[in-house]
Write a structure and sequence with these properties.
Elements lengths: L3 E9 L3 H9 L1 H7 L4 E4 L6 E6 L2 E12 L3 E8 L12 E10 L2 E11 L4 H21 L1
Antiparallel strand pairs: 1-7, 2-3, 3-4, 4-5, 5-6, 6-7
Length: about 140
């Protein structure tokens, strides 16, 4: 991987299955994410989008997944996010790993050629989202 990477790991009391559900279940995502999960076609090439009131805020395609273990998808902000239209598509990876009686979740957001607007947005957004996710799971 080249360029900038945002990465954050946390170890939770939740099971891998509970963390997986929190990533893919729209009702659970709505409890912690800044934008509700609107579409998730859980297959390689399937669409993923987040947004509110008919507005797609984040768009992407599923690259790969293994239930309760890993989800990789592309990421691009929708037209409602100012200054991001020319930013390249990036990649989000959720990795779920059992660690004794707990579970480690690592989120990696990669593919940034520079500190562009998308990088600035996610650098502020992911910590908030992951803290809120941890609060509902732990």
């Amino acid at each position: 991987m080249s360029g900038l990477i945002f990465s954050h790991s946390m170890t939770l009391a939740a099971s891998p299955e509970a963390i997986w559900r929190a990533i893919i279940d729209p009702a659970l995502v709505a409890e912690y994410h800044l934008a509700p999960l609107r579409v998730l076609e859980l297959r390689p090439g399937g669409g993923i989008s987040y947004g509110t009131k008919g507005e797609e805020m984040i768009l992407g395609k599923v690259v790969e997944f293994e239930a309760n273990r890993r989800l990789v998808h592309t990421f691009r902000f929708g037209p409602s996010q100012p200054g991001t239209a020319k930013d390249p598509e990036t990649t989000v990876t959720y990795l779920i790993e059992p660690v004794g009686t707990r579970t480690k979740l690592t989120l990696t957001h990669s593919g940034f050629p520079s500190e562009n607007q998308t990088y600035a947005n996610i650098s502020n957004g992911w910590p908030y989202i992951l803290d809120a996710m941890e609060a509902i799971l732990d």
